[in-house]
Amino acid sequence: MENVLTKTRKELLEDLPLGIKQLFTSITHLKEGEKVLVITDENKKEIGEFVYKYAKEFFETTMMVMPTREGHGAEPTEAVRAAMNNCDVAFGATTYSMYHSKARLDASKNGRLRWVGLQDYALHMFEKGGLTADFDEVKEVIDRVSEYYQGNTFKLTAPGGTNMVCSVKGRKPVFDYGTSREPGSASFPPNAEVALGPVEGTANGVLVFDGSIPHPLLNLLDEPVICKVENGFITEITGGREADILRKILADFNDPTVYNIAELGLGLNKENYLCGHMAPDEGSLGNIHIGIGKNLNFGGHVDSPLHLDLVIKDVTVVIDDCSLMKDGELLV
Ligand SMILES: [Fe+2]
């Protein structure tokens, strides 16, 4: 890549945003001659066009625009599905995540695609924050923390009032390094995390969400959203305006599985900060996101129409006798 850049597009290199350079180098290890696909939708075209503008100078690049889908995990159009199978790296610069779509999963299984989700992006994310991280260092941190991120009893507290206990017995840590370097891999940079799925029915206590809820109707929170947790499920939601919105979003599913405590995702990219966008918020160091709904990716057996992440700030995490994090500071 360095070669291609210096030889052919010197002037573009000069104003190449660091985040764009990272997408082409340390995140994907793109090589000369590889085929790039940029997928975008009507709502996030600005992001798609920004990535396309640079990618086309270095790689054979195609951009496809489709109508905005209805939510996370929804299927793309037929033509996009076909294109996903015929490229080396695809950037999904869309409103909602395609990570869990059948089209993405099938294309990754076919063994060629390196998938990079850029859903819910803003232009400032290419200039500063998590995308500028040293992703080799991020991987080292994740590998180190994950050795301690397992055990029997998981205790979570935070200055905002969170106090919850659950069992994680038998559950293995799930990583996201924020990179897609091997064929078949998929990531969601600058998110970087290690996650665990609590054993169903075991979570009890209170969760006070005071960071963000990455959802088009919520994002950065003005007032804490307080959730009572009993035997693995959220049973009561209180707070202000944002609590009312969350209560309605969940009630509209009319499906008890959406209240399931599904994921304990510890953010581990120190360059991320809470900004109301999904990837940096979920991958921000010192904070945890609690996923609710579907937990199939985390060793569980609950299928649900929803997987929604909610962020708690400056957490203290104790697994059995090991303190991993205190008030947002990593101890291992
Ligand atoms: Fe997560």
Automatic annotation (TrEMBL):
InterPro entries found in the cross-reference section: M29_Exopeptidase (IPR052170), NicX (IPR058739)
Keywords from the UniProt entry: Aminopeptidase, Hydrolase, Metal-binding, Protease
Entries under SUPFAM superfamilies matching the protein: Thermophilic metalloprotease-like (SSF144052)
Any one GO molecular function term: aminopeptidase activity
Entry protein name: Aminopeptidase
Organism (species): Sporosarcina soli
